[in-house]
Amino acid sequence: MLRFIRLGNTIFDDLFSVMAVIDLTFLRYCNWATNGARPLYENGRGPWNIFDPEEIERLRHTLEEVTLPELRRVNTIDDFVAYRSNEPPPHNTFSFDFKLMAHIAIAKGDLDEAVCIVDAAIAKGWVDHLPAYYELLKKRDQGALITFLRKQQASSIATLGLTGYWKPTPFPIEL
Prior knowledge:
The chain is an alpha+beta fold. About 45% of the residues lie in helices and about 15% in strands. Strands 1, 2, 3 and 4 form a 4-stranded antiparallel sheet that branches. A hairpin with a 5-residue loop joins strand 1 and strand 2. Helix 3 packs antiparallel against helix 4.
């Protein structure tokens, strides 16, 4: 599980964006994790002005009193699913991401559910090509699926530059 606050610049010199990010490490990233990112806006208006002391104080308050406690409550895959399932629009597309939902089911050890998710996506025409893990999943090859998730996790951690800090923990399927 990754939980962090991401600060980013905008096209304007005095404005920056702030995002609360909660994501799963076993999803393979090519760049910064954004799957679980939720923008924090200044009163719903957009990026934060770094030259406005009152606005910076509101951001500090939002981060310390609202966002960080919210991030700290998400510790398990089930917490992650609950958190993402309750996102406000337009960020509430979580349950439509069949790859994410299948990976979660695999990590939790619910291989039958993962097969159902992928097969339903195939039937709906959402799949251009079969996922790399599909044959392993159809065979219910738990060991190979764990290896698949671990490789994706290692790649994500390396991409994010966290290799020196990361300590792997068992997936629920391994417990």
